[in-house]
Amino acid sequence: MKMNTLQDYIDRLNQLNFKEMYQNDFFLTWEKTDDELEAVWLVADALRFMRENNISTKVFESGLGISLFRDNSTRTRFSFASACNLLGLEVQDLDEGKSQIAHGETVRETANMISFMADVIGIRDDMYIGKGNAYMHEVADSVEQGNKDGILEQRPTLVNLQCDIDHPTQCMADMLHIIHEFGGVENLKGKKLAMSWAYSPSYGKPLSVPQGVIGLMTRMGMDVVLAHPEGYDVMPEVEEVARKNAEKSGGTFTKTNSMEEAFKDADIVYPKSWAPFAAMEERTELYGNGDFDGIDRLEKELLAQNAKHKDWACTEELMKTTKDGKALYLHCLPADITGLSCEEGEVDESVFDRYRNPLYKEASYKPYVIAAMIFLSKFEDPQAILKKLEENKKPRIFK
Amino acid sequence: MKMNTLQDYIDRLNQLNFKEMYQNDFFLTWEKTDDELEAVWLVADALRFMRENNISTKVFESGLGISLFRDNSTRTRFSFASACNLLGLEVQDLDEGKSQIAHGETVRETANMISFMADVIGIRDDMYIGKGNAYMHEVADSVEQGNKDGILEQRPTLVNLQCDIDHPTQCMADMLHIIHEFGGVENLKGKKLAMSWAYSPSYGKPLSVPQGVIGLMTRMGMDVVLAHPEGYDVMPEVEEVARKNAEKSGGTFTKTNSMEEAFKDADIVYPKSWAPFAAMEERTELYGNGDFDGIDRLEKELLAQNAKHKDWACTEELMKTTKDGKALYLHCLPADITGLSCEEGEVDESVFDRYRNPLYKEASYKPYVIAAMIFLSKFEDPQAILKKLEENKKPRIFK
Amino acid sequence: MKMNTLQDYIDRLNQLNFKEMYQNDFFLTWEKTDDELEAVWLVADALRFMRENNISTKVFESGLGISLFRDNSTRTRFSFASACNLLGLEVQDLDEGKSQIAHGETVRETANMISFMADVIGIRDDMYIGKGNAYMHEVADSVEQGNKDGILEQRPTLVNLQCDIDHPTQCMADMLHIIHEFGGVENLKGKKLAMSWAYSPSYGKPLSVPQGVIGLMTRMGMDVVLAHPEGYDVMPEVEEVARKNAEKSGGTFTKTNSMEEAFKDADIVYPKSWAPFAAMEERTELYGNGDFDGIDRLEKELLAQNAKHKDWACTEELMKTTKDGKALYLHCLPADITGLSCEEGEVDESVFDRYRNPLYKEASYKPYVIAAMIFLSKFEDPQAILKKLEENKKPRIFK
C-alpha cells in the first residue's frame, strides 16, 4: 500500500465509493463497506506520507476535538491527541471528574454544551456490556439533532475510541500493519490468523479487541481462528458477523478450545487476555444494582477461573509451530510479559522482544487511522483537499 | 441584531464608543457603558457570522488563555476553551491541585508566573461572598503592575467567568439570546421579566446569576421583577444597581415574595434556585474560621428552609399565566428538572422539554460573548481587524 | 546581551560552534560547551526580541510537546507550555495517574507510544537521587532508537525540566538574568556569588538548584562560594565539576559552613533550602524498600536537624554585609518568606519585597530559555530560520 507519490493515493481513492462517510461517524468496522475501510487506510498512509515529507496537513485553522475517556489510557489518548493536532484541532478533555455530568445532566444536554465549536468527539467507553456503544450513539444522535435544530453551527462527528463491542481504531491500525507487512491486501487471501485468548494475572480485560479482530480480519479472505478456553466466549452477535464476513470474502472463521491448534501453521497470531462475555454481562448487572460485594465475589471467581489456564501463553515452543516458525505477532499493548511485567503472562519475554519493532510500528498507525477517519468525515472531496495541501507546500516544520 | 453582511456589524460598531475596553478587563456588566455592552453583542454576532461563513477569526498566532476554576464546570470551561481556540489562543489550566499556590504563594507572584505569555486570564471563583471578585481584581492589578514593571511583555486581560457578585458571560449570553428572540433591543421596552427563585434539592447555589440578571436586564427599559421567598434576598448593593438602572432606562425594578405575581403576564421568566445572601455570608465566615461543624449545621438549616418552599416551581400551570401562556423560559443550565434530575425541582419536565432548543441556543452564545470580550480588550480598532479578516478570506476549514 | 536588531543576535551566533545541539538533548549544563550555552542565551533573547516586536516565532504548524511531571509545578509547567506554544507545539501532559505506566509498562514502550508525533519531551523528575537523570536518559535513548528503527518519523528531543542532579532551565534563566543585570558575561569576572543554604520549615527540597548553580556559575570566572551547615553537602561529583570549572574559567570555587562568610562582599546571593545529599540517598533507598516507617523517621530527623539552623536566613543585617549592601538576590521561587509564607524562613519579607521585580524578571527568562533549547535542537541552521521569520513579518497578534 506504500506508494511513491501522493497522486498514487489520490488515484486509488478515485476508484472507491466512500461518499457516505462525509458528515458521518465511525462506530463499528462492520458497519462500513470495503471501499470505506480501504479509504481510511489510504488516507492514513497519505497523511503519513505527507508528514514524512514535511507537508502540513493542517486543515483546521481552529476547532476542538473533544475526548471523553471512561477508562485510563495512554496510547489511545495520545493517538487521538496526535490525530487532532495533525489536522489542526485542539483537544479538550471532558473529564467527568471536573464536569457536572455526574450531577444528573442528560447526555443530550452535555453533548450540545461541549460541541458549540467541536468538529470531532472521540469516546472510549468499554467497561460495561451494552453501554459503551449505546452511549456513543446517544451522543452522536444528540449533536446531529443539535445541528439540525440550529444549535450547533457544525456537526461534530464521532470516532469510537473503544466501546464494549469493537475497538475500530485499534483493529484498523492492526490491519494496516498487516497490509504493510504482507505487501498489500491482495496477499492476504488464504493466510491463517489466530486470535487467541492468553492468560493474564489481571481480570476483566475488554472484549472489544478480540471482537474487533474477528469482525474485521474475516473480511480479507483469511482463515481466522478464534481460540479460547471453554467459557471465554465473545459476543455471539460478533461471531455471527465474522461468519458472514468469511463466507462473503471467501475465507473461513472457525473456533477452537486449543491454542496449539490455532497457532499451528498460522501466518499471524494475536494472543491476548479477555474476560468471559457472560461474566462481563453479570458484572454490568451487578454495577447496575450497586452490588459491590457481588462484584468482589465475581472478580475472585474470574481470577480463579483464569488461574486454571496459565498454559495459554505465547511461548517460544508455540511460536515454533507457526508458519516457518515466524508468524507475525500482534498485540494492542501493553502486553503481560512473563518475567517482565508479571510472573506468568500472555507471552514469553524473548518472543515479545523479538517483535518489539513490529509491535511499535503496529501502534504507530493508530494516530493516522484516527486522523483519516476524521478527515473522511469532514471533507466531501478528500482527494481535492489532499491535492491542494500538496500544492500549498506549507511545511510542517518551518524551513 | 442578526445582520446580512459583516459590514453591517462594522457600521454599527462605528457609531459606538468603547475605546475604554482596549487593554481593559471585564468584571461586572454595570461597570460598562451601554455602548460597551452593545459592542460585545455586536462582535459576538460578527464572530459567529464569520465562523458560520467559514472565515477564520484566528487573530493570535501564539499565546495562552489561562483558566482558573475554583469550582467544577462543564459549560463555562468549554465556553472559555472554545472562545480562546476561536481566536488562536491555547488554553492552559491553572489547576490548584497540580500547582504550588496552595503552598503559601502570593497571588501577585502566581499571577506573574503564569502570565509571561498569557493574553487573557479567565477566572471562576463564586464560592464565597466578598472573595471571588476581590481575588480577580488582585490578579488583574498584579499583571497590570507586572506589565508596567517590564516583567510581562504583554498585559493579559481578565474575564470574569463567574464571581460572587456577577456572572457577566452568562448574563450577556442570556441577553443576546433575548435580543435575538425579540428581534432587537428596541423591542424590549416595557417587556416584563421575572427573575424568580425556585426550589432545588441542592443547597448553596451561587447568587451571581440572579444578581447578574437584575443588574443587566434592568438596563433595557424592561419591567424586571425579582421574586423569592422571605429570607432569600440577594446582595443589597446589586438591588441598588438594579433600581438605578431601571430609573435611567425608563423601566421598573420591583420585588415580591410571590412567584405567581412575578409570572403573571411575564414575557420572560428565569426561575432558578439560589442561596440566601445572609447564609452565604455566614458560610464564608465559618470557612474562614475552619468551623466545619458549623458549616454542616448551616447546610442542614438551609436544606430545611428550602424544603418549606417546594411550591416555588416553574409548573405548566404557572407558565399558563404568563403572556399568552408562552413566556420565554431562561436558565443557565443545568436545571433541576422535576421527575428527571430530581424528585421535585425548579421546573416541570414538560416545560423544560418544550424550551430545550431555545435553552441550548441561549447557551450557544456564551463562547462568542467571551471571545468578543477578549477581542475588544485586545484590539484598539476592532472594526479594522474584522474587515481585514474578511478580506483575508482564510477559511476556518480548509477548502 | 540585549541587542538592537535581530541581525545582531544572528551575527553573534555565526561566531559560535553549536552544531552538536542539532537533534540533541539538554540534560546537564556541564555537558555543554561555552559556545552552546551562549547560543541558548542568544536565541532566548532573540525569541524574546521578536515576540516583543510582534513577530511570530511559530516554526511548527503541528506537533506535540510532551510534558511529564513527577512532582507538582506551576512555574516550570507554565514555562514549558509557554515555550511550546511560542514555537507552535501543543502540550500534551503524560499524567501517570491517567496513564498505564503504573501498570508495569516499560519506559521504552511508553516513550515510543507517546512520541509518534512528539517533537520535544520535557521531564521533571527530581525526587530521588540516582533516578531522575537516569530515567531521562532511558527515555531519550528509547526515542533515539525508535527513530533509527523507523518507528518514529521524527526524533523528539528531551529537555531536562529538573532532575536529581541539575535544574538546567532554571539555572540558565538565572544566569541570563545575571548577564542582563551586569550588562554582559564580560563583566562577571571576579564577581562573588554566594550559593547558600537557608532554613525552611519544609523538608526534602531538591538539591538540583544548588548543584545546578555551582555547576554553571563557576564557568564565568566568578568567585563562587557554596555555604551550608555541616551535613548539608551536595553531590561530590558536582562539587568536582564546580572545582574544574573554576580552574578553567579563572574563577574560584570555595566552601564554607558560615553564611556570614559567604555573604561578605558578595555581588550575588542565592539563599535557598535543600536537603542533605546523604539523607536524600537514604530516602531513595527507603522508598526502594517500601520502608515508609523509615521515611517518617527520616523526615522527623531532618526536620529536627533543620530546626537547629534557623539562623541561616537572608536577613537585612546579612544583606548589609554584601557588596555596597545591595547584592543581587536570586531565588528560583517560591521562597519561604519569614512572616509571610511561614514563621521563620529563608528570607526576611522586607528583603524579598525589595527584590520582587528582579525576581520575577529572573523567572521570566525561563520560557525563552526552554524555547531556545528546543529551537537549537530542531534546526540545523537556526540563524537562517530566525532571519526568515523576520522577513516573513507574520505578526503574533493580528494587525
UniProtKB/TrEMBL annotation, chains A, B, C:
<dbReference type="GO" id="GO:0042450">
    <property type="term" value="P:L-arginine biosynthetic process via ornithine"/>
</dbReference>
<dbReference type="GO" id="GO:0019240">
    <property type="term" value="P:citrulline biosynthetic process"/>
</dbReference>
<dbReference type="GO" id="GO:0016597">
    <property type="term" value="F:amino acid binding"/>
</dbReference>
<dbReference type="InterPro" id="IPR006131">
    <property type="entry name" value="Asp_carbamoyltransf_Asp/Orn-bd"/>
</dbReference>
<dbReference type="InterPro" id="IPR017702">
    <property type="entry name" value="Carbamoyltransferase_YgeW"/>
</dbReference>
<dbReference type="Pfam" id="PF00185">
    <property type="entry name" value="OTCace"/>
</dbReference>
<dbReference type="Pfam" id="PF02729">
    <property type="entry name" value="OTCace_N"/>
</dbReference>
<dbReference type="InterPro" id="IPR006130">
    <property type="entry name" value="Asp/Orn_carbamoylTrfase"/>
</dbReference>
<dbReference type="InterPro" id="IPR006132">
    <property type="entry name" value="Asp/Orn_carbamoyltranf_P-bd"/>
</dbReference>
<feature type="domain" description="Aspartate/ornithine carbamoyltransferase Asp/Orn-binding">
    <location>
        <begin position="214"/>
        <end position="374"/>
    </location>
</feature>
<dbReference type="InterPro" id="IPR036901">
    <property type="entry name" value="Asp/Orn_carbamoylTrfase_sf"/>
</dbReference>
<protein>
    <submittedName>
        <fullName>Ornithine carbamoyltransferase</fullName>
        <ecNumber>2.1.3.3</ecNumber>
    </submittedName>
</protein>
<dbReference type="GO" id="GO:0004585">
    <property type="term" value="F:ornithine carbamoyltransferase activity"/>
</dbReference>
<feature type="domain" description="Aspartate/ornithine carbamoyltransferase carbamoyl-P binding">
    <location>
        <begin position="27"/>
        <end position="178"/>
    </location>
</feature>
<comment type="similarity">
    <text>Belongs to the aspartate/ornithine carbamoyltransferase superfamily.</text>
</comment>
<keyword id="KW-0808">Transferase</keyword>
